[in-house]
Structure formats: structure tokens, C-alpha cells
Design goal:
By secondary structure, the chain is mainly alpha-helical. Helix content is 71%, strand content 5%. The chain has two helices and two strands.
Length: 111
Amino acid sequence: MQHTKAQILMNLVLHRLTNCILIGAIVLCAISYMYFANSAVRNVTILQNSKSQLEALSARVSDLESERLALEEEVSIEVAKTLGLGEVQTPVFLVRGERQISGEALSLNIR
């Protein structure tokens, strides 16, 4: 009888310990699930925002590029000469290093 009471008491303690461990594991799993689910939702939201910003920036770059092309078509030698630029024999350039620019160039006429 005494031996069975000790075994019953030991079994109850082990069951209580096992139950506490299982409850702790379940709580830990629930907290981990909430953390990772929140992290996944946050990452998807950031990805969607990034895609929409990328689309907006791409459209803005496209608009700026077409403006640049339109302005580039308006520039010519004649327009430059009417703005006070003219051909010079010895052009002055600010060039970094030893590079030299050859060929015809436009420079500001100072009179």
C-alpha cells in the first residue's frame, strides 16, 4: 500500500510537470505563431508599398526622360549662337586630369 501511494504521488507530480511543460510549449508556439504571422504581414505590406513607389518613380523617370528629349530637340548651333555663344579658336575647358578635348567647340563670346 505504501509503495503504491508513493507511486501515485510520483505519477501525479510527473503528470503535473508534464502538463506544465506542454502548456508552456503551447504558449511558446502561440507566441511564435503570432510573431511570425505579424512579420509576414508586415513584409507583404512593405513589399506592396515598395512596388507602388517603384511604379510611381518609374513613371516620373519616364516623364523626365521625355521632357529631356523634347528639350534636346530644341537645342541647335543656331540657338546657341543667338544666346551669345560662338566658335572660338582656343576654347577653355575645365577638365579634370590630363584629358584634352579636340574638335569644334562653342564658347562664350566676351567683348
